[in-house]
Amino acid sequence: MLIPMRDHNPSGKRPYVTYALLAANILIFISYYGLFANDTALMRFFMTWGMVPAALGAGFSFETLLTHQFLHGGILHLAFNMLFLWVYGDNMEEEWGHLRFLGFYLACGVAAGLAQYLSEPQSYIPMVGASGAIAGVLGGYLLFYPRARVDMLLFLLVYFRIIPIPAWLVLGGWFGMQVFAGLGPSDDGVAYWAHIGGFVAGVVFALPLWLRRGGRALWTRTHGHPPHPEAQYRFVRTDIPAAGRRRNPWLR
Fold it and tell me: Which segments constitute the Peptidase S54 rhomboid domain (predicted)?
């Protein structure tokens, strides 16, 4: 398993909207967390505020294209989405500006919901989660910073290691996996077409801004790297001495 931990792409402004989105998602999740003890009540809640494709097809509940973006099906669902937003959101907010970034984020979430609706228009399964909107952030990030380094935590059973990988490989690989899973048979409950739709929308919506920044000339100037010095991370040594293994004199 590879998990993004941070990127080497510091932003020059405080990402207030990213902070607000993180807080809103967490606080809303806390507000209905008690429903997880009652499956019937939880499903009723998700059927009301989640995006139900069949409801859209019947011509109502269009507000759920927005509300579903702030609901999550569990702690891990929330945690992974917020981690991706934390790693990638600040740079896109800096490119867009605060209010325009909010509009970009929500529009990507709406596009993700519509993509999922088109893939299963008769489904009565509610879709919840910010992942479609965050996929749009990933698409925009890939367009602007394809060679920014992202520190990925490699997790193999008991083996852990942080590996810096260029964004084009991380995000392009992630998108490829969504397409592969979306085109194949799957019953794991993941809305792959929402991820695909959100990502594509992020690229399309960010394209005019990228062109105003210079388009391919921007890539020529920066070679796909962030247009500022990359953050450098290192482990800091401490004054705590390392404890070695001492041989027990009573053992032969």
Answer: 64-210
Q: Contact at 8 Å (CB) between 140 and 202?
A: yes
Region of residue 190 (phi > 0: left; psi between -120 and 50: alpha; otherwise: beta): beta
Is residue 107 within 8 A of residue 205, CB to CB? The reply is: yes
Kindly state the tokens that stand for 23: 């807080």
Q: What span, in angstroms and rounded, lies between the C-alpha atoms of 138 and 83?
A: 12
Angle ∠(174,177,183) on CA atoms, nearest 5: 145
Q: How far is CA 141 from CA 107, 205, 224, 248, in A?
A: 16, 12, 11, 56
Q: Are 211 and 219 in contact (CB under 8 A)?
A: no
**What is the CATH topology of the domain spanning 2-222?**
Rhomboid-like fold (1.20.1540)
Q: Look up tokens 């990507």; give the residue.
A: 108
The yes-or-no verdict on residue 1 having pLDDT over 70 is: no
Give the pLDDT confidence score for residue 52 in this predicted structure: 96
- pLDDT at position 143 over 60: yes
Does the structure show a pLDDT above 90 at 142? Answer: yes
How distant is the alpha carbon of residue 134 from its chain centre?
A: 4
Rounded Cα distance between 126 and 61, Å, is: 12
Axis crossing angle, helix 98-119 with helix 75-96, rounded to the nearest 10: 130
Q: Which residues does the annotation mark as catalytic?
A: 131, 195
